[in-house]
Amino acid sequence: MVLWDGYVSDELMGTFAPILVYWLYAGFYQLLPPLDNYRLHTRKEESEKNLVPLGVVIKGVLLQQLVQAVVAHLLFLVTSNASSSGVTVQPSLPIQAVQFAIAMLVMDAWQYFVHRYMHQNKFLYRHIHSQHHRLVVPYAIGALYNHPLEGLLLDTVGGAISFLISGMTARTAVFFFCFAVVKTVDDHCGLWLPGNIFHIFFQNNTAYHDIHHQLQGTKFNYSQPFFSIWDILLGTYVPYRLIKRPEGGFEARLIKD
């Protein structure tokens, strides 16, 4: 039993819950006090370096989520395995855990290679992926600010492939996609908060991805959203260290040979 039983279908929850979670979690970061002692960039850097206003970012995210919702709902309808009573039989928790892990690995592989190619292909970078990098200083609400085609290929198609290969049900997918959304938002939040569980358990975290957004780091740290496996295996991982700024906050700085 889950909270939405008897109210909405798993397929409908799988379509809209990740969008709702995105705005709740990103909004939480947006409404926090300044927290200058935990920022990876100063507010001055954010205003000077970013090349797109917040309103445009919000519209871009909403457009991507519209496409995401349409594709997700069609995917769930096509793959629905509900019984004649309308109830989907859930596999055991260990099997769901394995499906969850497979989906994470598949999503990481897909996003790494598509993301890396969009950097290496000058046409794709100039006309598509550079839109995401207009946010030189990332923040939570901008986590899904992409060119619509990139949003479709990288996130929506990547999510669909992860869902299909893992074999998870729509109900399991609700939790997986909400978790992926929370992790993606956290990676872009620009804050190094003490006790953040993602910073403790994931090498691929806020500072890791912040390095990628900086001009000197755009050829490194392509991995997203979960692990750094592909960067390490294929030589695109770059080490960094967090340095405390005298005026408050941190700076993620590349460690150069």
List the defining traits of the structure above:
single chain; 257 residues; mainly alpha; oxidoreductase activity; transmembrane helix; membrane; Sterol_Desaturase_Related; Fatty_acid_hydroxylase
Model description:
Keywords: Membrane, Transmembrane, Transmembrane helix. This is Sphinganine C4-monooxygenase 1-like. It is found in: Membrane. One of its GO terms (molecular function) is iron ion binding. The chain is mainly α and 257 residues long. The chain has one domain. It is built from ten helices and two strands, in the order ααααααααααββ. The protein has a two-stranded antiparallel sheet with strand order 1-2. Helix 1 packs parallel to helix 7 and helix 4 packs antiparallel against helix 6. The longest helix is centred in the middle third of the chain and has 28 residues. The protein starts with 9 loop residues before the first helix and ends with a strand. 39% of the residues are buried.
